[in-house]
Amino acid sequence: MEGDLQKSVSFRLNRRGERSSQSTNAKDFEVGLFSSGRVSQDSPMKIVWKKGFIRLVLVTGILWMLLILTALLFHIWSCQSSVSFFSAICNKESKVYTILDTMGFVSKPHRCLIPVANDPNKIVIPTGKSSDDIVKILSYIVEDEVPHNEPQSSPLFGGHQSWSQREESFKLNSSMKVHCGFMKGGGAEMDPVDTNFVKKCKFVVASGIFDGYDVPQQPSNVSVRSKELFCFLMVVDEISLKFIKENATVKQDSDGGKWVGIWRLILLKRPPYDEPRRNGKVPKILTHRLFPQAQYSIWIDGKMELIVDPLLILERYLWRGKHTFAIAQHKHHRSIYEEADANKRRKRYARPLIDLHMKIYYYEGMKPWNPMKRTISDVPEGAVIIREHTLMNNLFSCLWFNEVHLFTPRDQLSFGYVVYRLGESFKFFMFPNCEYNSLFLLHPHTREHSSPVEWVKRLDQLKNMSLKESRGGLGLWTPYPGDLASVVLPNVTRTSKAG
Questions:
Q1: Beta-ladder partners of 176
Q2: Which residues does the UniProt record annotate as the domain TOD1/MUCI70 glycosyltransferase-like (predicted)?
Q3: How far apart are CA 446 and CA 210, in angstroms?
Q4: Within its chain, how far is the Cα of 410 from the centroid?
C-alpha cells in the first residue's frame, strides 16, 4: 500500500517536472527567437525607440505639410498683393499658380494693379523688328476660286477655302501662301484718302464699330509722345458712320478725313458679311492686312474706353518680357467646350452650329483644357489684342480669321484651336483678366444685338434660307471629310454662373 502511494507521488512529481521543463524550454525558445536572450533590458528600450521614431516621422510630416501650405498661401497672397515688391515676385504663369487657380484657391479680383512704367517719355522703343525664325516669306491668296457646284457667283471676302487647303495652311514652312481675307471683289474697301493716311501709321491703336452698336469712346491718360507716335483708327461701316454723325461731333480735315476727337474714322465700304459681329472680325483679327505699314498694334473693342497710355501698354506686355503677341485670359472659362456651352446659353449663335463647330475641333484632336497644358487657358478675352506684326503673328492672325470665316463668328472658340495646331511654334503672353479690366472702362452698347440665326435651336430650322448666312460659315454647310456622326462632345462642368 505504502509502495503504491510512493509510486503515485513520484509519478506526479515527474509530471510536474516535465511540465516545468517544457515551460522553461518554451520561454528559452521565445527569448532566442525575439530578443536573443536579453528580454529584461532590450525590449523596453526598443519599444520606446520605435514609438519615438514614429512620433518624429509624424511631426516632421506635419511640419513639412504646414511649410508647403504656408508657401502656397504666400504665393497666392503675393500674386494678389497691392504691394509692388510682392506682386513683382509673383509668377502667375507657373503651373503651381494655375493648378491653385483651377482648384478655386485663388480669388479672382475684377481689377488689379498693372505694373506699368511711370513715365511714357522714358520708354525706350526697340529698334528694328523681332526676328522670324520659322516663316521667312508670307503671301496671300487674293483670287477666289469658286467651286463648280457652288451657286455663289460673286467672290467671297474670305474665299472658298477647301478642306485640303485649310489643312495645308497649318503646316509651317519658310515660305507660305494662305487665305487671309480681302479677296478681289469681296468687299471691305477703304476710301483712297484713308488708304493714303494709314500708310504713315507704324504704331496703331485700332477699334471698330459696326451696325451702329456703339459710339467712339475717347481715350484718357494719353501722353503727348503717344499722341504723336500712334494713329488712333476707328473702323466703321456706313450705318455706324451715319449713327456717329447723329450722336457725336464729326470734324473733317483739309484732306477729307473724318475725326471724332482723337479717333480717325476709317470707312469700310461694302461690308463683307451679313452678320455685323463677323464684320467686326475684319479689323480686329486682320489688322495687319488693313494697316499693312503698322509695326505694332493695340486692338480694343468699340465699347471700350482706353485709360492707360498705349506706349506703356506696349512696354508692359511686349517689350519687357520680349513677347510679340499678348492677349488677356478669359475671366470664367479655360476650355473652348465650356465657352461654347456658355455661348449657347447666352444665345450668341445658333446652338446646333456651335455644336457642329466643336465636333469638328474635337474630331481633329482638340482636347478640353487641363492644368498640364502648356497654355494657362484656351479661351482669351478677345476685347484687347496687343501684337507686333511679325510674320508668325500675321500668319496666326490669318489662320484665326479663316476659322472665323469658315465656322461661327465666335472668335474665342477658334483662338485656342489655332494655338493647338501651331504648337510650340506660336508663342504668346496671356495676362490675367484683372489687368485687362484695369486697362479699360467698359461702356454698354447703344442697343442689344440680335440676329435671327442666334435663336435657332434645331438644324432643320435653317432650311429657311432667310436664317442662313450667305457669305460666312461655309464650313458648317460644306460636307466635312470625316465621320462626325460618331463624335460625342466632352461633358462640360460649368465652373461659373456666367451667362
A1: 138
A2: 138-445
A3: 12
A4: 14
How far apart (Å, rounded) are the C-alpha atoms in residues 65 and 126? 46
Q: What is the pLDDT of residues 243-291, one digit of tens each?
A: 999 999 999 999 999 999 999 999 999 999 988 889 999 999 999 999 9
In angstroms and rounded to an integer, the radius of gyration of the C-alpha atoms of the chain is: 35
Q: What is the mean pLDDT of the chain?
A: 85
Of the two residues 332 and 18, the one the predictor is more confident about is 332
Range picked from 7-11, 45-49, 364-368 for highest mean pLDDT: 364-368
For residue 354, give the H/E element and its range.
helix 351-363
What's the average model confidence in pLDDT over 370-376? 91
User: Using the 8-state DSSP alphabet, how is residue 118 labeled?
Assistant: S
The answer to whether 391 and 292 are in contact (CB under 8 A) is no
Task: Label the pairing between strands 189-190 and 251-252.
Answer: unpaired
Cα gap 410→412, rounded to integer Å: 6
Residue 182 has pLDDT above 90, yes or no: yes
Other Cβ atoms less than 10 A from the Cβ of 300: the count is 23
pLDDT score at 464 = 72
Calculate the CA dihedral of residues 101, 106, 111, 114 and round it to 10 degrees. -70
pLDDT score of 53: 81
**What one-character-per-residue DSSP string does 125-189 give?**
PPPS----SS--EEEEE-S----TT----SPPSS----HHHHHHHTS--SEEEEE-S--TTSS-E
What is the CB neighbour count within 10 angstroms for residue 69?
10
Contact status, residue 456 vs residue 349, Cβ threshold 8 Å: no
**CA-based nearest residue to 197, from 239, 258, 240:** 258
DSSP string, 357-405: HHHHHHHTT-PPP-TTSSSS-S-EEEEEEEEE--HHHHHHHHHHHHHHH
Q: What is the mean pLDDT of residues 46-69?
A: 83
Q: Distance between CA 250 and CA 259 in Å, rounded? A: 6
| Poorest-pLDDT segment among 334-343, 372-381, 445-454, 456-465 | 445-454
Other CB atoms within 10 Å distance of the CB of residue 330: 25
319: number of Cβ within 10 Å: 18
DSSP letter assigned to residue 397 = H
Look at residue 316 and tell me whether its pLDDT is greater than 90: yes
Neighbour-count burial of 140, counting CB atoms closer than 10 A to its CB (0-12 exposed, 13-18 middle, 19+ buried): middle
Q: Residue 95: what residue type?
A: K
DSSP states of 436-490 as a string? Answer: HHHHEEE---SS----GGGG--SGGGGGSGGGS-SSS-GGGTSPPSS-GGG--PP
Beta strand 137-141 with 175-179 is parallel
Q: Which amino acid is at 307?
A: I
